[in-house]
Design goal:
Strand content of chain A: under 5%
Shape of chain B: elongated
Number of strands of chain B: 8
Structural class of chain A: mainly alpha
Oligomer: heterodimer
Distance between the termini of chain B: 87 Å
Number of domains of chain A: 1
Helix content of chain B: 25-40%
Number of strands of chain A: 0
Helix content of chain A: over 70%
Largest interface: A-B, 31 and 25 residues
Structural class of chain B: alpha/beta
Radius of gyration of chain B: 23 Å
Largest sheet of chain A: none
């Protein structure tokens, strides 16, 4: 009896939580099309989510590209087709690793900070203060973050892709001696507009997931230091898991 | 509120970030993804093949080994394969041209080799290439060799 009751309770809780998350998303997105548009807030968030993540994105992209070239080289050498190294690096970068890894880095760097910031504003009653001053907290706090990450994540992913391909070039061509010409020409013949488009589409949806989940977890944090810590952890874990699951479904639709 | 100086600096760094991102995106889309922003640089030619034997959309079209265009569309026309080629403007192709599907190396990708001809009249946008050669079906050749029908 108790077991059945517990299963029911968990199911109801999950449905309740999912419904709240969707209503939160729809309400925040509705402010995209209604003035006032918080341009200053959007620029601030672009600076925080985009510009400040550039360094860590470049760092991870370089090493991702380098290790891909290293692994790809030793696998391809068995078949005598080292010339395909460029396309192996570029396709895995543009289709999969760029969108997923860059979004995970944004989640870890900016997403956790978003949850903590909004959560502290909730705990210290700043969000209630905004409401008292007739400023809609969703429109002032959440929507600018969503706009900024919808813009910043695709741009960060593009930087990630390009830097990663150059990282692969350094290891493949400079260290392992693959011809520079065959590296670039295999990239140009293998990569199609469809691949780039798919990667950008993925990164836009990941940008939405990051800001949506992280803002939601902060906005509805429980009102204690412990609760905020849990909310931040939950936000990062849930965002990462959702990115990877959504990536699978999107890939199966796009391919 | 942020001060004027601070805001200027903020906008500057965001500007740098957006510019770098857009340049990278453009590089991916135009240089690597071959996105054509202007459609006026190419003209289209049609060619019918009995089989396209693995020729793909976007495969290169070459004259004497030099890339002059791409395969734009592959479709069916009755029981033949209709291939639409996009050839760069200023590359003349005549009505006695021959289009053949070739393979790079023994298991490489398929591409389209054009020998542009010269005796017939100049082909314009939407023109038809009459003489076509479908690619060699390697599997068929090998099976013919095994069963002894190759002379």
């Amino acid at each position: 009896m108790v077991m059945v009751q517990r299963i029911g309770a968990v199911t109801l809780f999950l449905i309740d939580e999912m419904g709240r998350m969707f209503i939160f998303l729809l309400r925040a997105l509705a402010w995209l099309f209604r003035p006032p548009f918080r341009i200053t807030q959007i620029i601030k968030q672009l600076h925080f989510i985009g510009f400040k993540s550039t360094f860590v994105v470049i760092l991870t992209a370089t090493f991702t590209g380098m290790v891909l070239a290293l692994q790809g080289y030793y696998s391809l050498r068995k078949f005598g087709s080292e010339g395909l190294l460029g396309s192996a690096v570029a396709l895995s970068m543009i289709r999969e690793l760029g969108p997923v890894l860059a979004s995970l880095m944004v989640t870890a760097r900016a997403g956790s900070a978003m949850t903590a910031e909004i959560g502290i504003m909730r705990i210290t009653e700043q969000i209630d203060a905004l409401e008292t001053m007739a400023v809609n907290p969703l429109q002032y706090l959440i929507t600018p973050k969503m706009v900024a990450s919808l813009l910043a994540v695709p741009l960060l992913v593009s930087i990630f892709d390009v830097v990663g391909i150059w990282g692969g070039y350094i290891v493949g061509v400079k260290l392992l001696g693959v011809g520079a010409g065959s590296y670039w020409s295999s990239i140009e013949s293998a990569v199609e507009w469809k691949d780039v488009y798919g990667g950008i589409l993925k990164s836009i949806s990941f940008g939405l997931i990051v800001s949506w989940v992280c803002c939601y977890k902060g906005f509805y944090t429980s009102l204690s230091a412990e609760g905020l810590g849990k909310a931040t952890t939950d936000a990062v874990v849930l965002t990462s898991v959702l990115i990877l699951i959504w990536d699978y479904f999107l890939t199966s639709v796009l391919l | 509120m942020v001060g004027v100086m601070e805001r200027g600096k903020l906008e500057f760094t965001v500007g740098i970030f957006v510019l770098v991102g857009v340049i990278c995106l453009g590089y991916l889309a135009i240089k690597l993804g071959k996105l054509e922003l202007i459609g006026g640089d190419y003209y289209e030619l049609n060619a019918e093949f009995s089989t396209t034997s693995g020729l793909k959309h976007g495969a290169s079209v070459e004259i004497a080994g030099v890339e002059v265009g791409r395969v734009k569309h592959i479709g069916l026309k009755e029981d033949l394969a209709l291939v639409v080629l996009a050839v760069q403007d200023g590359i003349p192709v005549y009505s006695d041209a021959i289009a053949s599907i070739k393979t790079r190396g023994i298991i490489g990708e398929k591409f389209m080799e054009l020998s542009p001809g010269g005796a017939g009249e100049l082909l314009h946008n939407g023109g038809n290439i009459q003489d076509t050669e479908s690619g060699i079906d390697l599997e068929q050749v090998i099976s013919q060799y095994i069963h002894g029908t190759v002379e």
